[in-house]
C-alpha cells in the first residue's frame, strides 16, 4: 500500500489554520513511530521547517509542502535558534500553515520550549504534538528497556551539549548516584570526559554501557561495552552522531534482535544527518 493512501482512522482530526505553527515530533527515525496527529499535520502543512534529525522519508508524506531545512551545519554547532524562530514567525505571518518538525520529541533536548516561548511572545498561535524520543523509543529498537524492575527503577536523561555546544556543568556525583541508568544525548563528541567524570564520581569501570547510533533507522548500530572502555570502543566502531550513550545495568538485559523487524519497510535507507 502506498503510504500516502493509508487512511487515518475516522475521527475529527484538527484542521491546520493559516498562520498557525504546529510544533511536532517526528520520532527517532522509523516513520512507523509517527503519531497520528503528526500524520494529520503532514497532510495539511503548506511548509515544513525541519531539522537534521528528521528522517527524509517522513518528508515524502507531505508532497504538497515546501521544505525548509534548518538543520545545523557541520562546524557551526549551536547557534541559529534566533534565525529559526524568526523564520517561523515570518512564515506564520504570511498566513502559511507551518509544520515545525523535529527529530524525537520537540521538548526533549529539542529546544521546543524555547521556540514555543518565542512564538507565543509575538502572538503566533501554536499546537504541540509530542513525538517518541530517541532516548526511549530509539533504545527500544536496540532492545534496551530504559527501566526494568530487576536492574533499575529510575532513569536520568542527560545532555552532553549546553547552549554553546559545551558539556554542561553537571553534578556527575549526584547524577551517578541518583539513577541506575543514564541516557546521554549529544554525548558522542565528549564521551571521554563524560566517562571519566562518572568514573571519578565512583561508577565502576565495569559498569555496562551501550551506544546506539542511528536508532530506529535502517542502519542502526549498537556497541556494547563498559564505562572503562567506552571511549576506545566507540572510536573503534567509528560511532558518530546521532548516537545515544546508555550507562547502567539495563544494558545487560538487552533483548538482542527483538526490535529490528519492527522497522517500517519505508524506513529511510539514508542515515540521519549529524545534529
Ligand atoms: N528531540 C530529540 C533529541 C534531540 S538532541 C529526541 O527527543 O530524540 C540530538 C541527540 O538526540 C543526538 O545527538 C542523539 O544523541 C540523539 N538522537 C536523536 N535521534 C537519534 C537516533 N535516531 N539515534 C540515536 N540518537 C539519536
SSE series = EHEHEHEHEHEHEHEEHE
Strand order, main sheet: write it out.
3-2-4-1-5
**Residue share in helix:** 10-25%
As a whole number of angstroms, the C-alpha radius of gyration is 19 Å
Write down the domain tally: 2
Structure class? alpha/beta
Bulk shape: globular
The CATH superfamily of the largest domain appears as Tetrapyrrole methylase, C-terminal domain
Strand content: 15-25%
Query: What's the number of helices?
Result: 8
The largest sheet is:
5 strands, parallel
Which CATH top level class of the largest domain fits?
Alpha Beta
Ions, cofactors and other ligands present here are: S-adenosyl-L-homocysteine
Distance between the termini: 32 Å
> CATH architecture of the largest domain, please?
2-Layer Sandwich
CATH fold descriptor of the largest domain:
Methyltransferase, Cobalt-precorrin-4 Transmethylase, Domain 2
Average per-residue pLDDT, rounded, comes to: 89
Low-pLDDT stretches: none
Total number of β-strand segments? 10
Amino acid at each position: 500500500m502506498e503510504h500516502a493512501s493509508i487512511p487515518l482512522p475516522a475521527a475529527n482530526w484538527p484542521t491546520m489554520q493559516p498562520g498557525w505553527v504546529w510544533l511536532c515530533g517526528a520520532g527517532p527515525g522509523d516513520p512507523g513511530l509517527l503519531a497520528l496527529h503528526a500524520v494529520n499535520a503532514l497532510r495539511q502543512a503548506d511548509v515544513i521547517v525541519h531539522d537534521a534529525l528528521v528522517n527524509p522519508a517522513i518528508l515524502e508524506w507531505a508532497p504538497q509542502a515546501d521544505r525548509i531545512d534548518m538543520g545545523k551545519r557541520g562546524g557551526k554547532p549551536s547557534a541559529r535558534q534566533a534565525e529559526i524562530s524568526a523564520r517561523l514567525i515570518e512564515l506564520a505571518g504570511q498566513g502559511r500553515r507551518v509544520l515545525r518538525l523535529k527529530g524525537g520529541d520537540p521538548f526533549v533536548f529539542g529546544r521546543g520550549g524555547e521556540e514555543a516561548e518565542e512564538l507565543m511572545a509575538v502572538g503566533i498561535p501554536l499546537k504541540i504534538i509530542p513525538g517518541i524520543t530517541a532516548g526511549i523509543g530509539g533504545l527500544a529498537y536496540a532492545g534496551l528497556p530504559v527501566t526494568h524492575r530487576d536492574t533499575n527503577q529510575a532513569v536520568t536523561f542527560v545532555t552532553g551539549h549546553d547552549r554553546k555546544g559545551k558539556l554542561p556543568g553537571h553534578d556527575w556525583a549526584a547524577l551517578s548516584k541518583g539513577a541506575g541508568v543514564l541516557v546521554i544525548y549529544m554525548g558522542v563528541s565528549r564521551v571521554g570526559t563524560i566517562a571519566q567524570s562518572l568514573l571519578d564520581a565512583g561508577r565502576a569501570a565495569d559498569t555496562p554501557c551501550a551506544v546506539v547510533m542511528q536508532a530506529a533507522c535502517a542502519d542502526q548500530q549498537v556497541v556494547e561495552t563498559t564505562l572503562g572502555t567506552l571511549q576506545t570502543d566507540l572510536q573503534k566502531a567509528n560511532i558518530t552522531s546521532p548516537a545515544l550513550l546508555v550507562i547502567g545495568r539495563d544494558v545487560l538485559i538487552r533483548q538482542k534482535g527483538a526490535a529490528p523487524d519492527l522497522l517500517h519497510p519505508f524506513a529511510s535507507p539514508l542515515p540521519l544527518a549529524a545534529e
